[in-house]
């Protein structure tokens, strides 16, 4: 299975909390190709998490349309959306969001449990992935017994174990020191690349953002700018894999920073 494309049209999100209206997104349209890696940057409060949550079907838009592949996410019922997310999407959050009372193995296998996979099969799949992520010796540990980097690797395993076609990551390295963040990013990118998944990643870190095919900058609820990152190669254009606009400016940091990715 390969990645899922994203098509979003005129997304608006207005939160109403205690009579205060917060205009989080003000008309965002975008396309992400199947297998593409897009990073989303912008200042705090600019609407990055809101955009990610809408595209992932975690929150409904106030108005606008969202398609993941050919599926109209904006029109799906809650139940259908939950089933669709379970089958096709993986999520990684800044604060890991692991279940504190479940072991590492149970956390990583959780989506397969929801999918109804028998225990032996789901534990086998989760254990194999955890071993690849360097956590083979920690299967019976609880999250509280792990370092931040180890917890984030469990979260990556949980996001990838169901072989999703698209991964949504909101500041996946935001709570890690820079060396740990480097290693977590490398693991995430190599897994995503190997399986040709689509990756949408919110980050504050210009260096990590630059590793993408394209970088979307959000400002005050709108896409202000789209640049190319270091991952984008002309091969993609030749393959017809991607409909990148021909002459995107290169991200200012991309050349200077370079990207430490496995396989690159
Ligand atoms: N559940 C909510 N209820 C009310 N307002 C919200 C809610 N979620 C977000 N907002 C508002 O929407 C705007 C965008 O928030 P969002 O979380 O998308 O920002 P962000 O770019 O992810 O910021 P950060 O980098 O700090 O995570 C902010 O003004 C925020 O206060
Ligand atoms: Mg956010």
Summarize the structure in words:
This protein is an alpha/beta fold and about 260 residues long. It has one domain (about 5-15, about 25-255): Rossmann fold, CATH 3.40.50. It has 9 helices and 10 strands. It has helices at about 50-55, 80-90, 105-115, 120-130, 150-160, 180-195, 205-210, 235-240, 250-255, and strands spanning about 5-15, 20-30, 35-40, 65-70, 70, 90-95, 165-170, 200, 215-220, 220-230. The strands form 2 sheets. A 6-stranded mixed β-sheet has the order 6-7-8-3-9-10. The chain has a 4-stranded antiparallel β-sheet with strand order 2-1-4-5, with helices on one face. Helix 3 crosses helix 4 and helix 5 (about 150-160) packs parallel to helix 6. The longest helix has 17 residues, at about 180-195. The radius of gyration is 18 Å and the shape is globular. The model is unreliable at about 255-260 (pLDDT under 50). The structure holds adenosine-5'-triphosphate (ATP) and magnesium ion.
List the helices and strands and how they pair.
Elements: E1 6-17, E2 20-32, E3 37-41, H1 48-55, E4 63-68, E5 71-72, H2 78-88, E6 89-93, H3 104-114, H4 119-132, H5 148-160, E7 166-170, H6 178-194, E8 198-202, H7 206-209, E9 214-219, E10 222-228, H8 234-239, H9 252-257
Parallel strand pairs: 3-8, 3-9, 6-7, 7-8
Antiparallel strand pairs: 1-2, 1-4, 4-5, 9-10
This protein binds adenosine-5'-triphosphate and magnesium ion.
């Amino acid at each position: 299975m390969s990645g899922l494309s994203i098509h979003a049209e005129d997304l608006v999100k207005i939160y109403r909390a205690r009579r205060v209206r917060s205009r989080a997104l003000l008309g965002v349209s975008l396309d992400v190709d199947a297998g593409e890696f897009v990073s989303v940057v912008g200042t705090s409060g600019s609407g990055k998490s809101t955009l990610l949550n809408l595209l992932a079907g975690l929150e409904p838009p106030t108005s606008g349309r969202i398609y993941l592949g050919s599926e109209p996410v904006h029109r799906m019922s809650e139940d259908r959306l939950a089933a669709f997310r379970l089958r096709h999407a993986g999520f990684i959050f800044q604060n890991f969001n692991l279940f504190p009372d479940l072991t590492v193995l149970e956390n990583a296998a959780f989506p397969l449990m929801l999918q109804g996979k028998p225990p032996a099969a789901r534990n086998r799949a989760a254990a194999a992935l955890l071993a690849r992520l360097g956590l083979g010796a920690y299967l019976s540990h609880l999250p509280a017994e792990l370092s931040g980097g180890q917890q984030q690797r469990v979260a990556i395993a949980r996001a990838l174990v169901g072989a999703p076609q698209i991964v949504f990551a909101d500041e996946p390295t935001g709570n890690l020191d820079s060396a740990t963040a480097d290693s977590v990013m490398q693991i995430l990118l190599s897994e995503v690349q190997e399986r040709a998944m689509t990756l949408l990643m919110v980050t504050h870190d210009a260096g990590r953002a630059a590793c993408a095919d394209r970088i979307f900058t959000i400002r005050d609820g709108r896409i202000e700018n789209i640049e190319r990152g270091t991952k984008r190669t002309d091969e993609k254009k030749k393959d017809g894999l991607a409909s990148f606009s021909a002459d995107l400016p290169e991200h200012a940091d991309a050349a200077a920073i370079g990207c430490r990715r496995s396989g690159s």
